[in-house]
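P.,

For your records, the input lines for the assembly:
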Amino acid sequence: MKNRIKRQLAIKQAIITGRISSQDELLHIVKDQGYELTQATLSRDLRILKVAKVSDQALGYVYVIPEAVNTENQRENSRVNFLADGFRDLQFSGNLAVMRTMPGYASSLAVVIDKTEPYEIIGTIAGDDTILIIMREGVTHSDLINSLILIMPKLEEKLG
Amino acid sequence: MKNRIKRQLAIKQAIITGRISSQDELLHIVKDQGYELTQATLSRDLRILKVAKVSDQALGYVYVIPEAVNTENQRENSRVNFLADGFRDLQFSGNLAVMRTMPGYASSLAVVIDKTEPYEIIGTIAGDDTILIIMREGVTHSDLINSLILIMPKLEEKLG
DNA sequence: CTTCATTTTGAATATTTATACATTTTCGAT
DNA sequence: ATCGAAAATGTATAAATATTCAAAATGAAG
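Structure tokens returned:
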């Protein structure tokens, strides 16, 4: 059955292209391309292709081709346009908040924050992709988050 | 529960060390270390740690920490080793760690650390010869040291 | 073209893993 | 301390995935 090889290529391609989170989903995609197979065969194919399943943010689980993991990230980086889009995440430790951004975004983001001089923030220090925010004593985590949303409303989707 | 942090570290460690092929297996290992948890919690931990399951030769399936899978990263190992030579010392103050390096090394070293996104570290900021590392709450000094060694094995000689 | 060994596959099923729901614990604010 | 909200966890179960077993397809050798 020569089909096997072609089919596995199609599977690989589908995984690289879309965010696929279950074998059933993948099964339908490949079937729609004209291949005949069942979940059992798909499971075997995935083993042969060394496909892995990892958690994708809070969204769920996705299949990945191990070698393609990095490429994926690169592609993501290139479609960044707006400043707030450079935001990655925000975490706290004591009275410090650490905001991580995409590479190169930290200093411009920090400038924006500093310029508005929010009461909640005593100061910031920016590297290339990380901003350290020193919070005023008594300021809560959600106070800080709110003040950041005030500065960059677009953050609300990512922080809310 | 501070346990959660330590437990997840233990899980990560177990995955890196042994070939683990099911959550049940992992569950027993972690339980034997004195942690109390169920498969449900383990499943959640694996999601948080972004652990992936891939096929391992004809043997079966094993859990892996994605960064360790990446072929791309393998090639990078030599570069990382070189960078580790720039390391000078590491000191702690509360939840902050300060790593001093030879002039010019700090930012590239910090990039290496950031890229692996170790659980123990919520962010870094690098100058020219100093890196400020903000540790996750509940992480001990030796936890941090271990995570750094994981990233740059060469550091073991200088930190161990 | 047979025969035999090997590979591939599907159906059914066992195993494994994720999650809904309820409960407990933790943590921040007052 | 006390309250309330958010996070963490266990139990039970649903959902997803791997594998067993039997059958069909393929291929090599006569």
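Two observations worth noting. Residues 3-68 of chain B form a domain with the Arc Repressor Mutant, subunit A fold (CATH 1.10.10.10). Chain B has two domains: 3-68, 70-154.

Regards
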